[in-house]
Amino acid sequence: MTNITGVLKSIRDIMRMDTGLNGDAQRIEQLGWMLFLKIFSDKDRELEVLNEHYTSPIPPEYHWIKEKGNWAGDNEGMTGDKLLTFVDQKLFPALRNIDISVGNGRALIVREVFEGNHNYMKSGINLRKVLNKLNELDFNIAKDRHAFGELYETILKDLQNAGKSGEFYTPRAITNFITDIIDPKLGEKILDPACGTGGYLTSAIEHLEQQANSVEERKSIQDNVHGWEFKPLPYLLATTNLILHDIELPKIKFGDSLSQPLSNYRQRDRVDVILANPPFGSFVGDGNETNFPANYRTKESADLFLVLMIHLLKNGGRAGIVLPDGSLTGDGVKQRIREKLLTECNLHTIVRLPNSVFQPYATVATNLLFFVKGTPTKEVWYYEHRLPEGQKAYSKTKTIRLEEFEPIKQWWNNRQEHEQAWKVDIQTIIERGYDLDIKNPNRQEEVHEYTSTELIGLLESSMLKSQMLLEQLKSEL
Question: What proportions of the chain, in percent to the nearest 5, are helix, strand and coil?
């Protein structure tokens, strides 16, 4: 088996020598489109073997495979300025304008990937070196694909340290925990309307694969797992992620989930399961808040996504989502949105997380919300997830782990109040103005010495709340 770790390390070292690449985010984007095209081409080769009528949507001269062209797959192929000119002036323009008139879904994926991404490398010699390292990988070899799939998660995790790009990645422990709790079934339509790099989608695919016992059942997974993403880099990474999980035609829509009126979504658009970590701490643009009923219009993206997700669920549909503390409290529009949630859905559980789970790109406290649409809430159970003993905060090297959720799983079906779990009846919540930011009444007060990171997080949260209040005041005036 190829030494995949060594290949990726070599690629990283080559890219660091190229003057066109500045920082981790650009290196990941550069590697992203190259990996996508290599993985897509390897999949094309497999499909051509399995189906004699299959034709790749990529014109032969732009294909990665050596037999079809010499720009990528041939280690002795073009290099230097000739290669750079080919990539910038021929490859990208050709794939951005690929023919989609015949309704080929794979052609559309290629076009959308290349419309939103760029070649940043300035040295054709370095570019040739990277291509040759990627030629050592064969994604049609199951062992290589599986091993690379695990390493790909590491690449995605690196986004947490790449500035704003970190918002696209949800820790794997959280996506797996929420998926295990919601327990999607074969045949159910599953959606992540803000799918980022595809963490929830791949967790759902892996969960469903354990249930599949036939070719037809495995095919149903491809047909029923859907994502929406409107930023080019995460769209590219999510699409590649799903292809690595043997999804021939990923059902990921490239576009803004909030860009059309809520009334446009009909019964046929409704889904059985929503798994999501909608963007929070950001404000919607292009007047997208006007796509929602006047009672629920706000600039805060997380709150609008909550309204959208309630609307998209079928009656009896289940959701497991991440929301910040700021969405659990507040007056005006925020209160009306929470009232909608508690009236139209059974919000049965809130898991409260420490505020360092999403470090370093976000330090605000977050929560996992679990609800079922169709019946109003009668009581809400809370569970306070705590840091491992002796650990003051999560960090790049000490991330949240799936094993930490084991006590919650054991408690889930046999609920009792204890030091970390408590329940609140709906009347109490109504009297609080539908405020869901309810602290643990069973926890003994203790003097907490805040770390500098936690203090920054508290300040960030306070400034965010102030900014949202200011935006709300501006809109009312």
Answer: 50, 15, 40
